[in-house]
Specification:
The protein has 22 helices and 92 strands. By secondary structure, it is mainly beta. The N terminus is likely disordered. A hairpin with a 5-residue loop joins β85 (1862-1867) and β86 (1873-1876).
């Protein structure tokens, strides 16, 4: 009525040509508040919002911005704002972009007002903005796509509390709305009537001067670039100039409406300055006086004429098309939220007063073009189906039985009447054709004339069996019982997971190809406890599968139905139940493809699973095969009306494909969900609006399985209810509780919660188990019902012969007789649950078949069948799913039997027994059962072979990886055979033997085995090589890991050869020999072997030597541990040669021969090989021969058993030469050649070499035998240990032959064959081989069986496979006549002797060492004393191995005759000796190394001093292993005579040496590698003196002061420390009153922050209450993601995953908590997945593996003062760091060894350091305030130079852009992010105005830096130069270093 009155007044005024318009009220402002989806700015005096990202850029002036910030002081900016004192008291312009509706010093502390803000795409808001713009700019072609709404409600001015008795009651309310599209932006300022009560604020620094600065209103572009590195003021525009113009803001306006101001603020093409709206009209409140402003201030005069604001042709337009309502943001505020009041503090909200809705903007101006969202112009209304508005519009009262009519377009809904049940007055309903909607939702509604009640039996069945019924005034409703949820008609157990099944059908056009989906399966699984919904659609054709990936809304339905509920919200299933219809439409951009989705819920099945059918139709954009789709988390608002829920949203997704790269798309989704509700319970209202949050969206199409998968995590909550402190969210609401998936999480106080098993489950809540209600008898099934247990529930099924009654619960008898089931000549008798058929008198049969002839007795088949079928006898019960046999007319089993349930079929014999191998699965043709069984053929060779291989292992496991032959139907080998593991295939003959030349590797075309073999060419060298390696093992397994040469079709080596295991490739010549310099490692491009070798010089002797050693072994494995000679660039031997394994070094001559006396062991200074040798005579041939043999083998090992020639003093061969190993001697000539016939065996008289040679005769058989054995091996070395026959002077076999090594002798015949029974062991007299009986013994005497001793002896004497006897083994000695063990046994190699019994067992106590007289074995054993401790120790070690060999290298204790330890013990292998006590324990200080005299162990010990630290350290390392072996390779510290560490320590294995302090700690910078001169450890290392150890507080304070350049600003935080170095209990930001309490570790006490002038009262030395116990300092790995940002934040290292390039704050977590630390520099090793960091507090460098539970490891803890920047070179395994106190840069290996100082000069304040592995270059910053610079050098400290020094301020952060090859830095002084090429060229500014950067990394065109102003991680796009994202950790404190952690090393990583 008020609006009508106003309209009448205006019409009356029109007659006079004048109409006064009143100012706007608060209800006319744009909707705001939490219910509109607004974010709320934190209370305070100088607060700035978190970054507000814009999904589409905003054009402000002529610049584009993609983010905004809202600040307390009445301002919106495109950049984060500085401290308020830098702008709040100054006029325009500002140095940052600003939209200022009321720029003043505002303070909302203590609840004095609220500030709301949001970005919206709601059509109602956009339509309203468009209308306002079109009124102010009629010619504008403007269709807004986005709007930013910021509202300051009841905010107060900042006041000094000391000046007044209390806070002022003056508060202001105003609003700013920014609307924009792709090209233009417009800003609307709204000042409601009574909204401005103060007009300026007093400066904080005014002291006692009474001044007040008027608020500034207007716009500023901010600073703009000028020249290259300069900046200047940008354009600006002021609306106000003094207090009066501020007062005019709500009294006048430039739109014709007082308080409404409109401005054109930006254009993407050309824009100079702000343009105000132009409107002429009469205002009802003119200003008090005129005012004039300068040229940059708007000049608004009061015009006398007032133009049309009403449409004369349609005066009723106001009622039909109100300008508010409809949208979810235009909704009534909750009671008490914004109730209007006369007080300035009264909070109001739009829509409270419908009469005020059109106070301005009366004319409804349509959009100039179609909206992006196809929304109708504002004003379309939705009338609820039963509302009076609809009834009147229809002309008749509609009854309650009518269903809701779903609107056709996006329409707006007016607010409800006060007496109506509330439903959402806002929102929109999607466009759905009414003909497509099934409105039969099953809701039964009643009039009061015919009310139904719960007692009405017809309606009881509508409620779920887990629900109860309640009567209401107009009818009844169903409600789920406690422990269940739903809409009453369908109830599910609370907390239990839910399953969904259904079908998907329809036709989808992908691109231009239509594809039909024909009832394919859909299955979903929802974990209700945390809102996870998984959906899978199977058998999806490939083109549709890829295209449907973005259609996650198909699965979102299930997420909405069963979402995790936050307080005051309901998931969809509680509203809809299991019967509903969902209509959704998706419109894709940019292609405008449309897809319709109709999903129908058809109830719950017998297993309580929800059945949902889906129909899709329309078109989809084509996505390339193999694409990956990424969808960011999003939120969606659902509007609820009676029987319908609606939502509207715009989704964005990105597609990554190999074909197109990365692309971005979007689609618009509109949906209605219709359902049946119960209108009778007026008090059980559904929320008007709810917000569903999809936190994680995962989509995937599996091509191989043709399965489309969606996974979504869903939470539902009231709109705008989002916790600001995630750690305070109860785990039940966060979804991170540990309750079982079948349990309900019950939130308690704070973080506490309880886990309660869902209804139907039992357990402790963490582990729940299904309750079998059927077994426990707790089911609700009645009589004649069968209980079927279900997960979490049960169902009742009526028994056979019963059915559910009308109430769907009681089973009633079925009257089967009513259907006449019996024979016509029989009568039917109904019984309870059954019936009977009885033949009439005179008829015979079972009642179903009656005849006048008597029926034969039942056959076996019939009895079998009838026993399984129900309904024959009264007590029969059907067997569900049982097989029922089929009988023919004669009662016999049918030959073919089929199972009715499974579909399997098989043949049976006459007894009904299944015939083997006749069963067929469902869907395949059954066997012909009339064919007789074929007789079984015996197994063939192939079948035997196959079955033998397939036998499982002895443990019952199948053999994996073995070759299994393939046999055909006749059991013969198939011609083509393949190995299933290796993929090799080959042809075989009928015997299964491989046909040569037919084998092909995996992935190549197989040989055609049907072709006959071509005449086989002889195998080539390559084929011989290949086939020898490829032979499978005796068990049938291929040899794995060996190199297999590749041969071409002609059998020649292919030019390029590769090792399949190592990945190495190389070129070979025609002989298969590797061509030098062609080998390439795995993963690199192989050498082009077709290119001819470049002309190169012939290989030198050194290169031949080196290359021969590096060649792999014949089996294809490289030789490990061999000595590899070192050659210089010319191929000559380097003068100094070293063995990499042993550490020995020596000098060599030009031929590589070792120069005598030059060899030095590891850890000693090598010989200076540049000194000339003393003059010596040239080597003779003999000396060359001798020295060549003594040289170590090609593998670097000394030659054992080789013949070494003997030279006389003149270097000539001595005439008589002997072999030291075999004992053979012979004569040689002057050339060292053996003179024939002069060789004599060991123990015989040597030949007189002074006699001349006799004439030579031909060699005899014996001589040939002898000389053949003596032939050296392939490498030129003689065969050691072989038997060499002895020949007499005429070359015949000597009748007595002896083995030089073993000592055995035997007789031979003239052919050299051993005569049986003549062999004698060593030490016994040999046989007389010339006796006749011996000569005839082998012919006359019958041979007796071998004895145990002879078997033992002969077994040991068996030669090796190569024909050589086993050397070193013990050979039993047997009696020559009886074959029994001789009483005395001796070991031929070791010399030990002992006595044995008749079984060859050693008699205890009889063993004697070599050289000692053996025990008399004929004496009987004396009574044996028990073994002593020493003897037990000795015998345990001395026991030979299972093969009969003694254990070599072990320490064997020495015992005296009484079995006691000898006082002096020595180790036979190492040569160390020491004294022991009576228990064998080493006496301290008595150990002597080999070569030094041992201690006198008989001297008593001197009074022993306690062991020193060094001695404890040394002795703990030297302890032998449990088996008695010393620990090899360990570092053993060296102690002096007093037990102190010697100043110089060396590692005997590696050769490294270093200096240590008195505690044995390595002194930094003193380590030297082998062969380098050691540091003089007597020189002191300077250490900075300290008065006392600095505390954490003091170190942190010093670090920050240094960081601030020594002069921290008053507002900067500096830790406050007590005199003892501990943290002061109160900490403040500089001189401000922004203070808080801390505990003794410096951690903030939650809830103690104060912004008042009074600092908080903090208690010193009192540990505050903590929310949770302190975490252990171990690693919690980041989520499973490829890229993670690691950031340092004081006492912790955080992990922030990246989703693409977006910061995934939802998955951020603490990687490592380090109490008492200050982590500054941080780096990551991508190869071993370790994180490295510098600790400013502990002065250490540390690392930890990023595996769960890993703990920190200190790498360096000496000589560090202020370690800051840190870099890791993963390629070279080095790390580099800067120390900003001594101003130096150092490096070390990644394990902390090899520490080295690189730079100590020309450094003032080094901060950041990076290493570029690909180029081997270091870069670092030095923010010397006098001369800041960025420098570079090589990683070895060479080539140092300045990269940039001009235009640099405080270069804190440094990174490397691998894509451009530029070095980039962020400067905390200039505030710029810049990049430059390493040579200083190409310098450019990426971002001109950062805040306070500290550290930075680069990844995928984005820079990520830590910011000390925001205390967070900021992302900057390199392409757009805009800030794209930010992450602010929950605990606010400075962030230091940042690094990228990757699962694999990135290209160009540094």
């Amino acid at each position: 009525m008020e609006r009508l009155g106003m309209l009448a007044a205006c019409l009356l005024c029109w007659s006079c040509g004048v109409c006064l318009v009143s100012a706007i009220r608060r209800t006319d402002m744009y909707p705001y508040g939490p219910h509109s989806g607004d974010l709320v700015l934190a209370e305070g005096d100088d607060e700035t919002s978190r970054v507000l990202p814009l999904s589409r850029p905003l054009n402000f002036y002529n610049a584009r911005f993609s983010q905004l910030y809202v600040a307390t002081n009445g301002i919106i900016s495109a950049q984060d704002l500085p401290m308020e004192k830098q702008y709040v008291d100054d006029g325009f312009p500002t140095d940052f972009p600003a939209v200022a509706p009321f720029l003043a010093d505002i303070d909302t502390t203590g609840g004095r007002g609220q500030i709301y803000y949001r970005v919206t795409e709601t059509p109602a808001v956009l339509n309203r903005v468009a209308q306002e713009v079109h009124q102010g700019f009629p010619d504008a072609k403007f269709t807004p796509t986005h709007a930013v709404v910021a509202t300051w409600e009841n905010v107060a001015a900042y006041e000094e509390q000391t000046r007044t008795t209390g806070p002022s009651s003056k508060v202001n309310t105003f609003q700013a709305v920014i609307g924009y599209d792709e090209t233009d932006s417009y800003v609307i300022f709204l000042y409601p009537e009574g909204g401005l009560n103060f007009f300026g604020t007093r400066p904080k620094e005014s002291y006692n001067v009474e001044i007040e600065l008027p608020a500034r209103v207007g716009f500023s572009r901010g600073e703009v670039p000028y020249l290259i590195f300069s900046r200047t003021e940008g354009p600006h525009y002021s609306v106000t100039s003094n207090e009066q113009t501020v007062k005019n803001l709500y009294q006048v306006g430039n739109t014709g409406i007082p308080g409404v101001w409109l401005f054109h603020t930006g254009n993407s093409y050309s824009f100079d300055n702000i343009v105000p709206a132009s409107f002429s009209g009469l205002l009802d409140t003119p200003p008090a006086g005129g005012h004039s402003l300068d040229t940059t201030t708007a000049d608004y005069e009061i015009n006398e004429d007032y133009s049309d604001t009403l449409d004369h042709d349609n005066p009723e337009e106001e009622d039909d098309y109100p300008l508010t309502g409809g949208d979810p943001e235009f909704q009534t505020a909750p009671p008490g939220d914004h109730s209007e009041s006369a007080s300035p503090d009264a909070r109001s909200s739009p829509s409270e007063d419908p009469s005020r809705q059109a106070a301005y903007g009366i004319k409804n101006v349509p959009l100039t073009s179609e909206s992006k969202y196809n929304s109708e112009p504002l004003g379309r209304q939705y009338a609820p189906p039963n509302s009076p508005e609809r009834a009147e519009a229809g002309g008749a009262q509609q009854t309650l039985e009518q269903q809701p009519q779903v609107p056709l377009e996006v329409v707006d809904v007016p607010p409800p009447q006060r007496n109506e049940r509330r439903f959402s007055p806002g929102g929109h309903v999607v466009s759905v054709d009414e003909d497509d909607v099934d409105f039969d939702t099953g809701v039964i509604q009643y009039t009061t004339e015919k009310k139904e009640t719960c007692a009405s039996s017809r309606f009881q069945q509508q409620c779920s069996q887990n629900a109860f019924c309640s009567d209401y005034a107009t009818g009844f409703c169903c409600h789920c019982r406690t422990g269940f949820y739903g809409n009453g008609r369908h109830c599910l157990p609370e907390g239990a997971p839910q399953r969904v099944s259904g079908k998907v059908s329809g036709t989808v056009t992908v691109g231009s190809t239509p594809v039909e989906l024909n009832n394919i399966d859909l299955h979903a699984y929802i974990v209700v406890g945390d809102g996870r919904a998984y959906t899978a659609i199977s058998e999806v054709p490939e083109p549709v599968g890829w295209a449907l990936m973005p259609l996650a809304p198909i699965g979102e339905l299930f997420g909405w139905l069963f979402a995790l509920e936050l307080p005051n919200s309901q998931a969809g299933f509680k509203i809809t139940g299991a019967v509903f219809t969902r209509h959704a439409e998706a419109i894709f951009y940019p292609g405008n493809q449309r897809l319709s989705i109709v999903q129908t819920g058809r109830g719950l099945d017998d297993h309580n699973h929800l059945n949902v059918d889906t129909i899709v139709s329309g078109s989809l954009p084509f996505l390339p095969p193999g694409s990956e789709v990424t969808m960011d988390p999003f939120k969606e608002i659902y509007q609820y009306y009676p029987s319908v829920a609606t939502s509207y949203s715009v989704r964005e997704f990105s597609v990554m494909s190999a074909e197109r790269g990365s692309e971005s798309f979007s689609f618009q989704l509109k949906q209605n969900i219709t359902y049946g509700d119960c209108r009778h319970d007026n008090g059980a209202g559904v929320p008007e609006t709810l917000q569903i949050t999809m936190e994680r969206v995962f989509v995937m199409y599996v091509k191989e399985e043709r399965i489309l998968r969606y996974a979504i995590t869903n939470k539902i909550s009231p709109v705008g209810v989002e916790p600001t402190e995630p750690e305070l969210v109860n785990p039940c609401y966060a979804g991170n509780h540990d309750c079982d998936t079948t349990a309900q999480c019950l939130p308690q106080q704070g973080q506490d919660f309880l886990c309660q098993c869902a209804t139907g489950y039992r357990g402790d809540g963490r582990n729940c188990y299904d309750v079998d209600e059927c077994a426990e008898g707790s089911s609700s099934c009645g009589a004649h019902a069968q209980c079927v247990n279900l997960p979490g529930s049960h169902s009742c099924q009526c028994q056979g012969g019963f059915e559910f009654g009308f109430d769907r619960r009681t089973c009633v008898d079925i009257d089967e007789c009513s259907s006449s089931p019996c024979h016509i000549s029989a009568r039917c008798i109904n019984a309870l649950g059954s019936f009977q058929c009885q033949c009439q008198p005179g008829f015979y049969g079972d009642g179903f078949h009656c005849s006048q002839h008597e029926v034969h007795p039942k056959s076996q088949c019939e009895q079998h069948r009838d026993s399984l079928q129900g309904g024959r006898e009264q007590d029969s019960r059907p067997s569900l799913g049982a097989f029922v046999p089929q009988c023919d007319s004669d009662g016999r089993y049918r030959p073919l039997q089929c199972h009715g349930s499974t579909g399997h079929c098989w043949c049976v014999d006459v007894r009904g027994q299944e015939r083997a191998e006749t069963r067929t699965p469902p869907g395949t043709p059954p066997k012909d059962c009339n064919r007789p069984d074929e007789p079984e053929h015996p197994k063939t060779h192939c079948e035997h072979h196959r079955d033998r291989v397939q036998t499982t292992s002895p443990e019952g496991y199948p053999i994996v990886g073995a070759y299994v032959p393939q046999c055909d139907d006749n059991g013969q080998y198939t011609p083509s055979q393949c190995h299933s593991s290796t993929g090799h295939c080959w042809c075989v003959d009928a015997n299964g033997q491989e046909r040569a030349g037919t084998r092909t590797p995996a992935g190549t075309t197989r040989t055609d085995c049907s072709k006959p073999d071509e005449p086989e060419h002889p195998k080539t060298h390559c084929e011989h090589h290949r086939d020898r390696v490829q032979t499978t093992s005796p068990e049938g397994y291929p040899i794995v890991g060996a190199y297999v040469p590749q041969c071409d079709d002609n059998g020649q080596y292919t030019p390029s050869q590769c090792h399949s295991s190592t990945g190495h490739c190389w070129c070979v010549d025609g002989n298969g020999q590797e061509r030098a310099g062609t080998r390439t490692p795995a993963g690199t491009t192989p050498t082009d072997c077709s290119k001819p070798d470049e002309p190169q010089r012939p290989k030198t002797h050194c290169e031949h030597h080196r290359d021969r050693v590096q060649t792999t072994s014949p089996e294809g494995y490289p030789i490990v541990g061999a000595y590899v000679p070192q050659c210089d660039d010319n191929g000559q031997y380097t003068p100094s040669q070293c063995h990499s394994s042993t550490g020995h070094c020596w000098c060599v001559d030009g031929n590589g021969q070792e120069r005598a006396g030059t060899r030095t062991p590891a850890g000693t200074t090598p010989t200076d090989c540049s000194k000339p040798e003393e003059p010596e005579h040239p080597k003779t041939h003999c000396e060359h021969h001798r020295d060549r043999v003594q040289t170590t083998s090609p593998e670097g090992y000394p030659i054992v058993g080789a013949y070494v020639p003997q030279c006389d003093d003149n270097g000539q061969y001595t005439p008589s030469q002997c072999h030291s190993s075999t004992g053979h001697c012979w004569c040689v000539d002057g050339n060292g050649q053996e003179r024939a016939g002069t060789r004599t065996p060991a123990g015989t008289t040597r030949t007189d070499c002074s006699k001349p040679d006799e004439s030579e005769r031909p060699k005899t058989s014996c001589e040939h035998h002898r000389d053949r054995v003596q032939t050296t091996d392939r490498e030129g070395y003689p065969i050691a240990g072989a038997y060499v026959p002895q020949c007499d002077a005429i070359g015949q076999y000597r009748s007595l032959q002896c083995h030089g090594s073993t000592g055995h002798c035997w007789c031979v015949d003239v052919r050299g064959q051993e005569k049986a029974g003549t062999r004698t062991p060593p030490g016994t007299p040999p046989k007389d081989c010339d006796r006749p009986d011996v000569m005839l013994s082998s012919l006359d005497e019958p041979e007796r069986p071998k004895t145990h001793c002879e078997h033992h002896r002969d077994q040991a004497q068996t030669t090796s496979p190569e024909g050589y006897p086993i050397v070193g083994a013990y050979v039993a000695q047997c009696d020559a006549h009886t074959g029994q063990y001789t009483p005395l046994q001796c070991h031929g190699s070791t010399g030990h002797c002992w006595c044995v019994d008749g079984r060859g067992q050693e008699r205890a106590g009889t063993r004697t060492p070599p050289g000692a007289p053996p025990t008399d074995c004929d004496k009987p054993d004396e009574p044996e004393r028990p073994k002593t401790h020493c003897e037990h120790h000795r015998d345990r070690v001395e026991t030979t191995s299972p093969e009969g060999y003694p254990i070599v290298g072990a320490y064997v204790p020495q015992c005296d005759d009484n079995g006691q330890y000898t006082s002096l013990q020595c180790h036979g292998s190492t040569g160390h000796c020491w004294c022991v006590d009576s228990t064998g324990q080493e006496r301290a200080g008595t150990r002597t190394p080999p070569g030094s005299p041992p201690k006198d162990c008989d001297k008593p010990d001197e009074p022993e001093r306690p062991k020193t630290h060094c001695e404890h350290h040394r002795d703990s390392v030297e302890t032998t292993s449990p088996e008695g072996y010393p620990i090899v390779g360990a570092y053993v510290p060296q102690c002096d005579d007093n037990g102190q560490y010697t100043p110089r320590q060396c590692h005997s294995s590696t050769g490294h040496c270093w200096c240590v302090d008195g505690r044995g700690q390595e002194r930094a910078g003193t380590r030297t590698p082998p062969r380098r001169p050691s540091v003089d450890c007597d020189r002191p290392v300077p250490v900075a003196p300290t008065e006392h150890p600095e505390s954490v507080c003091e170190r942190w304070r010093a670090s920050l002061i240094e960081h601030y350049g020594g002069k921290p600003q008053p507002e900067q935080y500096v830790p406050q420390c007590e005199q003892d170095g501990q943290f002061s209990p109160v900490q403040c930001y500089g001189e401000t009153t922004y203070c808080w309490c801390v505990d003794q570790d410096g951690r903030e006490v939650p809830g103690t922050r104060s912004y008042d002038v009074v600092k908080p009262a903090c208690l010193p030395s009192v540990a505050p209450p903590t929310v949770r116990p302190l975490p252990r300092p171990d690693v919690t790995p980041p989520p499973n993601t490829d890229i993670t940002l690691l950031y340092a934040q004081g006492q912790k290292i955080g992990a922030l995953p990246l989703n693409g390039t977006r910061l995934d704050a939802s998955r951020s977590k603490t990687l490592l908590t380090l109490h008492g630390s200050i982590v500054v520099g941080i780096a990551h090793d991508c190869k071993e997945n370790h994180v490295y960091w510098t600790d400013l507090s502990a002065r250490t460098i540390n690392r930890a593996s990023m595996a769960a539970g890993a703990e920190p490891e200190i790498l360096i803890n000496t000589n560090l003062v202020s370690p800051e920047g840190l870099a890791v070179d993963a390629k070279r395994r080095l790390m580099f760091w800067v120390d900003s106190n001594p101003d130096m840069i150092e490096s070390a290996n990644l394990d902390g060894s090899g520490r080295r100082t690189l730079f100590t000069t020309d450094l003032v304040n080094p901060r950041a350091i990076i290493v570029v592995s690909s180029t081997g270059t270091l870069y670092w910053t030095d923010w010397n305030r006098e001369a800041p610079k960025i420098e570079s050098a090589s990683v070895d400290g060479q080539n140092r130079r300045v990269v940039v020094s001009d235009g640099v301020g405080l270069p804190n952060a440094l990174t490397y852009d691998s894509s451009s090859g530029q070095v980039c830095w962020a400067d905390a002084g200039t505030k710029r992010l810049e990049c430059v090429s390493p040579d200083g060229s190409g310098r450019r500014v990426v971002h001109p105005s950062l805040n306070y950067p500290f550290s930075m990394v680069y990844y995928r065109n984005h820079f990520y830096y830590t910011d000390w102003r925001r205390d967070g991680v900021i992302a900057v796009s390199k392409e757009s130069s805009q800030i794209t994202d930010e992450y602010l950790p929950d605990q606010r404190s400075h962030l230091y270093g940042i690094a990228i952690a990757t699962t694999h090393c990135l290209s160009g990583s540094h």
